[in-house]
Specification:
466 residues; mainly beta; ten-stranded mixed β-sheet; five-stranded antiparallel β-sheet; 26 strands; globular
Length: 466
């Protein structure tokens, strides 16, 4: 269903080449915001797409070192985010984070003066929209830039408030960013004053003299699979900031592009299909396998977010708008800390990488188990408790143990993208793939099981000699 939501391409005044990162998965949903709340816990949960190295601190040089990104062009290590949208249960009042993904559009729109379009500079970030807005000013470009599309049989038009009907095909929450820059400041105190909308319209036109540098236009469609949940009137859908009107939708961007590549794409791409494969500079670095295998590397806020099970209240101090609850009633609640999305392996264990199974049987054949809560840590702990020095996770919920690689397995490392199965017990970890193992090894020669310890091999791991 989510793929259907993100298959509808908005073609508003597209007169030039453009490209789209369609159906981009989120990398994490957590209460962090490196732009508005740097080095701190954010005020509400965001759905964040893009680079795996996202954290509550933005540093361009650090961000571009991320292992991967959920967009298919791996040279774009930017992050793109907006408030998570929740379904509120009519009877219990509990909240569930609804499945979310993004269409991300790059639109060169030079305006009547045919102004030169520039790439985002290193270190650039910006915010569009206002989390505190609950009304609509029809004369404000900033307000016009926030819209919704309800995918329903009666095909209602694009509108600014959140729809007040069920959307069986899904909901698109849309944000169009300012495209004019002052040419000096990479950010500003309100994260908006260093940029501006064009003179003629929010989505096209010439830049004002105060902001003369015309950047490529950036547009998000956040697709939300609302159709799988019941609709019971106003208040069914709630943004993470407590907003039920939809006017408080906003979005953030922090640049992680190879700036030279982005400028080359702006200058050279001429296709008007939106397909990035029609843009030669981007097609050359197109890697959907890396995007599909990409998992979050950083720290999460240590709190439930409604992603895996319902929650009684929105994380942070975010009473539902119109509920009558005073925000001051939760202002004194303790601030949670951060925990790694990928907990460390047990002491002595090290990750090796992705390897192929044996050609004539299991590469690790001595002992196996499966578990619905499988993680790399659980697998390594299980194998270690039985005295083995090698552990391999596979097919999301399976674990294999041994002291040597057997049945024709070579141990040659495969590209990391070959192992793309999320662990059953932690969606931020990889537990092998189809006939592929996420291999781990123990550096010691002794474990709790002495009968197994006597069979230790001298090398870290070795090919079976039979």
């Amino acid at each position: 269903m989510l793929a259907r939501i993100l298959s509808f391409v908005t073609l508003v005044a597209v007169a030039n080449a453009y490209w789209t990162f369609g159906a981009t998965p989120v990398i994490v949903q957590t209460r962090l915001d490196s732009i508005v709340s740097p080095d701190a816990i954010g005020s509400h949960v965001h759905a964040i797409a893009g680079a795996s190295g996202f954290s509550n601190h933005y540093d361009y040089d650090q961000l571009i070192q991320s292992n991967c990104t959920t967009v298919p062009v791996q040279s774009d290590k930017s992050n793109y985010w907006a408030p998570q949208m929740y379904h509120r249960d009519k009877d219990t009042g509990e909240f569930v984070a609804m499945p979310t993904s993004f269409n991300i559009y790059y639109l060169p729109r030079p305006g009547p003066k045919n102004e030169s379009i520039k790439a985002f500079p290193k270190g650039f970030r910006m915010l569009a929209g206002d989390t505190f807005r609950r009304t609509y000013n029809a004369s404000s470009f900033a307000d016009q830039a926030i819209t919704y599309v309800c995918l329903a049989d009666n095909n209602p038009p694009e509108a600014s408030p959140m729809p007040t009907q069920q959307c069986p095909g899904g909901l698109r929450a849309q944000v169009f960013f300012p495209s004019c820059w002052d040419g000096v400041n990479l950010d500003s105190p309100d994260h908006q004053s260093h940029v501006a909308y064009p003179i003629q319209a929010f989505n096209t036109g010439d830049c004002p003299d105060t902001h003369p540098v015309h950047l490529i236009s950036l547009f998000y469609e956040m697709g939300v699979d609302v159709g799988q949940f019941d609709y019971h009137g106003n208040g069914t859908w709630v943004l993470a900031n407590g907003d039920t009107t939809g006017f408080g939708l906003h979005a953030d961007f922090q640049n992680g592009w190879d700036v030279g590549l982005l400028q080359q794409a702006i200058d050279e791409c001429s296709g008007q299909s939106g397909n990035l494969l029609d843009c030669a500079p981007l097609a050359a670095v197109y890697d959907p396998d890396a995007a599909a295998a990409c998992v979050f590397e950083g720290d999460l806020v240590d709190e439930p977010t409604g992603v895996t099970s319902p929650i009684a209240a929105l994380p942070g101090c975010n009473p539902v708008y119109g509920s009558g609850v005073d925000p001051s009633s939760c202002a004194g609640q303790p601030t949670p800390g951060l925990v790694p999305a990928q907990p460390p392996l047990p002491e002595g264990w090290t990750g090796v990488g992705c390897i192929a199974e044996g050609t004539s049987g299991r590469a690790l054949a001595a002992l196996t188990m499966s578990a619905p809560n499988m993680t790399k840590e659980l697998c390594a702990s299980f194998c270690g408790s039985h005295g083995f020095t090698l552990a391999g996770a596979e097919y999301s919920d399976e674990c294999y143990c041994d002291d040597a690689l057997r049945n024709g397995a070579t141990g040659d490392l495969l590209p990391w993208t070959e192992c793309a199965n999320r662990c059953a017990g932690n969606d931020f970890e990889i537990c092998g793939g189809g006939a592929k193992l996420t291999l781990m090894t123990h550096s010691g020669s002794a474990h709790s099981n002495s009968s197994q310890s006597s069979r230790r091999v001298a090398a870290r791991f070795e090919k079976d000699q039979y």
